[in-house]
Structure formats: structure tokens, C-alpha cells
Amino acid sequence: MSDAEIGSNKRIPKLEGVRGVLAVGVLVFHVAWQSGVTNFMDQPGNGIWGHLADGLTVMLPPFFVLSGLFLYRPFARAVITGTRGPAVGDFLFRRGLRILPAYWLVVVVALLAVNLQGINSAWDVIRPLLALHFFIPADQPGIALQHTWTVPTELTFYLALPLLAWLAVKFAGTAADAAVRARRATIPAVILLVIGLAWVAYTNNPSFTGPYELWFWPFYYVSAFACGMWLAVATAKAEVTGIASGILRSAARHPNLYWLGALAIYLLNIPKPFGTPGDGTVGGMTQELVGHCLILVFAMLFIIPLAVPEARSRLMDVTLANAPLRYLGRISYGIYLWHVPFQNFFVENGNVFGKTPVIDAMLRGSASFWPLVTFTLVGSVVAATLSYYLLEQPLVRAWNKRSQRRRAAVTEATAEPKVPAGT
Q: Does 390 fall in a domain?
């Protein structure tokens, strides 16, 4: 995920910090589930704390919203200004370089330390390395890799983004007015939103008989990317035309009200009045759709005031722009990747402990919350730090240096030759 500030190359402290909050929130949710604190189907959790932990499902979609915002924005700006967008090849390589090396490291560790005894062919190794393990899940040894469905989801969005940008260009056509081009640039986002909601309804329909892995296909959360894409167009339009939408103006004037609204949505998402999601009933489908829409609203209320440069909030600065959270935000991708393997290490689940690994549901409640969350958080932060500074950043810096040399060479080659003085 990009660290670039909207309209500049600087880092926004608040947007660094928010990724730290989200990563730790996802970690706490998974630890709470593993330790039996949360409610799960017919298994009651730990009273009010279980319900509050249930509500932390809102912490994942904002990551996808941020991806949609930052990654679609350069394309949206190009559509609005009528200029050429980012080079597709360079964009895809950069995104792959940012997300794949750290992911491959986690896959190798999880396969060797947890799943080695279950590997029966090279295909069992190739599938997760190519991020195909949720598309082709049959007999895939994937303990400690259950959460990595987000990687193929992100990769699919990266691959689709140039096509979506091309569609935006086609929809914008030759319209002379930038505001008109901006409105038309949101059409791909609307299409994705509809696809996402339709997929949620399809996979939760009582007549659905497909594999549960379809819940983890990119279509399930493509609606969150769509929300980020809309925000990308809105902020790019405001920068280009100087005319901000009513939502952005409102967020600039009352940023804390947006967070208050996000808190209300978080609390509203906790009770499940229509049914149990995933139980194969009409009530379960209704509840999943309602919950899905609520977490999208939460994500937008949470992110919008952070994406508006004019928004000023002491509360947001204090809670998000402090050094510890900014650091956690910087390594948030690694925290996300490593926290589930460390949960499995704590409960000694895997061949490295001389045991055949089992699915996490069979170990639910086998560890207390506080020891598990402490071990998982410390281990994930250490592993993420090492991955960030020894693997991810060196590769990114090497690529940036190569790109700078290449651009310098192109500039020198295309520059007009200097005429010697006196000739």
C-alpha cells in the first residue's frame, strides 16, 4: 500500500498510523477468536468482551479502501486532466515487488514449519507461491496461511486496475469538462460495487452449494476497493478543479463527526438481529449483506477525514500521528502476514512441534487471550521489522535506483545536443 500523501510524495503521519491501528485490530480479532473470546456460530464468547471483539471485523475493509484510494488515484487524475496515466508495466512490477517477497517468505516458513508433512507434490508448494491456493484449494496444505486470501485479492485488484482505468478513459470520452470526466471515472467503481454485493448475496444464498473458499475470492471484498476508487476520483477532482464534493467539504469541517459515525457503525455491527452469517439460511444471508454494507460505511467514515488535506483534528493527530503507531503502520503488512503463523507457533500446531497440523477451529479456546496476544504481537512485530528492513525495503530501494538511472539515461538521450561555444 502506498505511503504517498494525496497530491504529493510526502508521507501523511495519520495515514501511516491508521494502518498500524488496522493491523493490530485484525491481529486482536484473530487472537480473540482463537482464544474463544469471540462468539462463533453456536459457540458463545466471553460476554461483553466477546461482542466487542466480534465488532473488530470492521478493521480489514479499510485496508482495501486505502488500496483503492491510493492506487486508482493516479489513473483517475489522468482521466480528469486528459493526460496519460501511469505506465502499466512499471505499475504492476512495483506493486508485485511491494507485496510478493514478504508474502513468499511467510509461505515458505509456514510450509516448512507447519505443513511439511502434508506436502505431497510440487504443486502444493507452487499454488501458494503463485497465490492460487484459494482459487484451486483441493488438498492444499494451508495451515497458518488461512489469512493470506487477502494477497490474491490485492494482486487481482492490481491486475484489474489498468483495465478499470482504460474503461474510465472510454467512459470519459472526449468530454471537455473535468467535472464530467470525473463523474464518468467513477463508473468502474460503481460496477465493482455492484459485483461485490452480488457476490456476497450469491455465496450466502441458502441454495448455494459451492466451496466455502468462494467467500475468500476477490469478488467478496471488491466493493471495498470500489469505495476507495470513488474517494480517489473525489480527491483528484478537488485537486484538479478546486471544487470539492459535499462529503469532502463536510469531512474538512467536521472530521471528528465522521469518526463518531464510524464508532456508531462499529457498535451497530455487533448485534446480529437477522441471523448468523454463513448458516445457509435467508436470515444468515440478510445478516451478511447488512453487515457487509455496515463495514463498508465504517471504512469510509473512518478513512475519508484522513484523506482530506484540509481536515484538522487534534484527536486524529494524537491517536494516529504518534511515533509508535506510525512505526506499526510502516510494518503493518508484515504484522498482518506473520500474526497467524505466530498464533500457530504458540499453540504448537505443526510438524515443527512433531504434530500433524489441524485447522484453527479445532484449537479454538486452547490458549488464554493475554498470553496469546502478547506472544503473537511481539513475534509479529519482530518478524515484520526484520522483513521490512532486510527484505522489503532493500528491494524497493534497488528498484527505485534502477528506475532513476533509467529515467536519467532516457532524459540524456532525448536532450538536445549542446553546441560548443564559439561555433
A: no
Residue 184 near residue 171 (C-beta atoms within 8 A): yes
Q: How far apart are CA 188 and CA 200, in angstroms?
A: 19
Per-residue HEC secondary structure of the chain comes to CCCECCCCCCECHHHHHHHHHHHHHHHHHHHHHHCCCCCECCECCCHHHHHHHHHHHHHCHHHHHHHHHHHHHHHHHHHHHCCCCCCHHHHHHHHHHHHHHHHHHHHHHHHHHCCHHHCCCHHHHHHHHCCCCCCCCCCCCCCCCHHHHHHHHHHHHHHHHHHHHHHHHHHHCCCCCHHHHHHHHCHHHHHHHHHHHHHHHHHHCCCCCCCHHHHHCHHHHHHHHHHHHHHHHHHHHHHHHCCCCHHHHHHHHCHHHHHHHHHHHHHHCCCCCCCCCCCCCHHHHHHHHHHHHHHHHHHHHHHHHHHCCCCCCHHHHHHHCCHHHHHHHHCHHHHHHHHHHHHHHHCCCCHHHCCCCCCHHHHCCCCCHHHHHHHHHHHHHHHHHHHHHHHHHHHHHHHHHHHHHHHHHHHHHHCCCCCCCCC
The whole-model pTM stands at: 0.93
> Residue 232 domain-assigned?
yes
Average confidence (pLDDT) over 22-33: 97
| Residue 279 pLDDT class (50, 70, 90 cuts) | confident
61-81 vs 13-34: helix crossing angle, rounded to 10: 150
Classify residue 191: in a domain, yes or no: yes
How far apart (Å, rounded) are the C-alpha atoms in residues 236 and 81?
9
Asked if residue 6 has pLDDT above 70, the reply is: no
Instruction: Take residue 363 and report the three cell numbers written for it.
Output: 484449537
Looking at every residue in the chain, the average pLDDT score rounds to 93
**Per-residue cell: 41:** 456460530
pLDDT of residue 415 exceeding 50, the answer is yes
pLDDT of residue 107 exceeding 70, the answer is yes
Domain that holds residue 222: 61-322+337-363
Task: Please state at what angle helix 150-172 crosses helix 187-204, rounded to 10 degrees.
Answer: 140
pLDDT of 296 reads 98
Residue 209 lies in a domain: yes
CB atoms within 10 A of CB 163: 11
Q: What is the domain count for the chain?
A: 1
